[in-house]
UniProtKB/TrEMBL annotation:
InterPro entries: Peptidoglycan-bd-like, PGBD-like_sf, PGBDSf, TAT_signal. This is Peptidoglycan binding-like domain-containing protein. PANTHER family: MULTIDRUG RESISTANCE PROTEIN MDTA (PTHR30469). It comes from the Bacteria. Coiled coil: none annotated. The chain crosses the membrane at residues 17-39. It comes from Actinoplanes ianthinogenes. Keywords: Membrane, Transmembrane, Transmembrane helix. Residues 138-174 form the Peptidoglycan binding-like domain. Pfam families: PG_binding_1.
Length: 402
C-alpha cells in the first residue's frame, strides 16, 4: 500500500447516503400532494355538479304613461284630384305664359294659365261655365258669377242673377288688377229714328261694354287648392287637361292590416312622418273602409288620415310612416312588467315584492297594458319598489309554485 494516499473517511459515505434518502422522500411527498388534487370524494364531486342556488331577477315599480301604437305606411295624396280642362275659344289655343307650378297654391282669383295671351281665372263655384255672359243676361250662372266677384271684394248692387252695370264694373276691375285688358264687345247700335241731316258726316265710334267669355274663367267648388301637376308647358297646344288641382288639402291613404283593425278607430291621433325630409305633422284617422282582399300586404282596410293642420307641399306624393296612438292612459300610472304579475292559489292577482331580501306578495288590480307593461294598483305597492319578474336558475317560480 502506498503511504502517500490518505484512507477514505467513513463519515463522507454516510452523508451521501442520508442526503439521497431525504431527497427521495421529498420527491415522493410532492408527487403525493399533486396526485391528491386530482382525486375527489363522491360527496365533493356531487356538490360541484349541483346547480347553484337560484337568484331573483327584479324590476323597479315605476310611473309612466302607457301608450299602444299601431305603425303602418301611407302615401300623401290630394283629397280630391281635379283635372282642369279649360273651355277653348276661337282660333289656336297655346300656352303663352307659365303662370303656376306644381305645389303652388291656387286661391279665388288666381290665374291658372294664360292661353293665347288671355287668362284663365279660378273662381269659386259649383256650375261649370256653359255660355258667355253678357250685360242684361239673367240666370243661375250670373248669380254664381256675382257671388264669386263679391268674394274677391268687388261690390255689386245689381239684383241677384241679373247682369247689370255694377256686375260689369266688377268684371272690369278683376281683369285690370291682374294686368289684363278686360274683354269688350260692341254695344248694338240703337235704331236711328230719322235720317242724318249731314251728308257725309263721320260715323260715330261704336260703344263697347265688358262681358265675360266662358273660356276665361274656371269654377272650382272648393278654394284654395294646390297644383298637384302641370300637364301642359309653355308653347304646348291645349288639347286636354292643362293642370291637376288637389282640392280640399292633402291627405294620407294607406292600408290597415286586418289584425290591427280592432285597435284603430276614426278620430284617433296619428303622427305623420316623412322619412325623406325628417319632418313630422299631426293628424287624425278620418275613415276606415271595409276589408279588401289583395296580394300580401295589400289585403286590409283602406284608411284615410287627415292632417290636423296643413301638410307641407313637400309631402305630396311621398310615402310616409303613420303611427296611430290606439290607446293611452292619458296620465302617468303605476306600472310593472307583465312578467311580474302572477295568480295566487286563491285566484288573486299578485305581485311579489322584494324588501330586505324578503319576498312579500301584494294583491293588485290591473288596468291598461301596453309595450310589455301593465297598470297596477295595490295597497302598499309604491314607485321604486322591486318586483320579482323571474329567476336566473332553478325550475321553481319566484313565488314557489313551481
Amino acid at each position: 500500500m502506498d503511504a502517500d494516499v490518505p484512507p477514505q473517511a467513513p463519515l463522507r459515505g454516510r452523508r451521501r447516503f442520508l442526503l439521497g434518502l431525504v431527497t427521495g422522500a421529498v420527491v415522493m411527498a410532492l408527487a403525493g400532494l399533486g396526485a391528491s388534487t386530482f382525486v375527489k370524494s363522491p360527496q365533493q364531486a356531487a356538490a360541484e355538479a349541483a346547480a347553484p342556488p337560484a337568484s331573483l331577477i327584479t324590476a323597479t315599480v315605476e310611473r309612466r304613461v302607457l301608450r299602444e301604437d299601431v305603425v303602418l305606411r301611407g302615401t300623401v295624396e290630394p283629397d280630391r284630384a281635379l283635372e282642369v280642362t279649360p273651355v277653348l275659344g276661337s282660333g289656336r289655343s297655346v300656352i303663352s305664359r307659365r303662370v303656376v307650378k306644381a305645389g303652388g297654391r291656387v286661391g279665388a282669383g288666381s290665374v291658372l294659365a294664360e292661353i293665347s295671351g288671355r287668362p284663365v281665372i279660378a273662381l269659386t263655384g259649383r256650375v261649370p261655365p256653359y255660355r258667355d255672359v253678357h250685360a242684361g243676361m239673367t240666370g243661375s250662372d250670373v248669380r254664381q258669377l256675382q257671388a264669386a266677384l263679391r268674394e274677391l271684394g268687388y261690390p255689386i248692387s245689381d239684383r241677384a242673377g241679373v247682369f247689370g252695370a255694377s256686375t260689369g264694373r266688377a268684371i272690369r276691375r278683376m281683369y285690370q288688377s291682374r294686368d289684363y285688358e278686360p274683354p269688350l264687345e260692341e254695344v248694338p247700335a240703337a235704331p236711328d229714328p230719322a235720317p242724318s241731316a249731314g251728308v257725309g258726316a263721320p260715323a260715330a265710334t261704336p260703344a263697347k261694354r265688358v262681358y265675360l267669355p266662358m273660356s276665361e274663367v274656371y269654377f272650382v267648388r272648393t278654394l284654395p287648392a294646390r297644383v298637384a301637376a302641370v300637364k301642359a308647358g309653355l308653347g304646348a297646344e291645349v288639347a286636354g287637361p292643362i293642370l291637376t288641382l288637389s282640392v280640399g288639402g292633402l291627405v294620407v291613404r294607406g292600408t290597415l292590416p286586418p289584425a290591427d283593425r280592432e285597435l284603430v278607430d276614426p278620430g284617433m291621433s296619428v303622427e305623420i312622418f316623412d322619412e325623406t325630409s325628417g319632418k313630422k305633422a299631426p293628424g287624425r284617422v278620418t275613415t276606415i273602409g271595409e276589408l279588401r282582399q289583395g296580394a300580401g300586404s295589400e289585403t286590409g282596410h283602406p284608411i284615410t288620415i287627415s292632417a290636423t293642420g296643413t301638410l307641407p307641399a313637400s309631402f305630396t306624393g311621398q310615402e310616409v310612416r303613420l303611427t296611430v296612438t290606439s290607446a293611452t292612459t292619458g296620465e302617468e300610472v303605476l306600472v310593472v312588467p307583465v312578467s311580474a304579475i302572477f295568480s295566487a292559489a286563491d285566484g288573486a292577482t299578485q305581485v311579489l315584492r322584494v324588501r330586505d331580501d324578503r319576498r312579500e306578495p301584494v294583491t293588485v288590480r290591473t288596468g291598461a297594458s301596453a309595450g310589455g307593461f301593465v297598470e297596477v294598483d295595490g295597497a302598499g305597492l309604491a314607485e321604486g319598489d322591486q318586483a320579482v319578474v323571474g329567476g336566473r336558475t332553478g325550475g321553481a317560480r319566484p313565488d314557489g309554485t313551481g
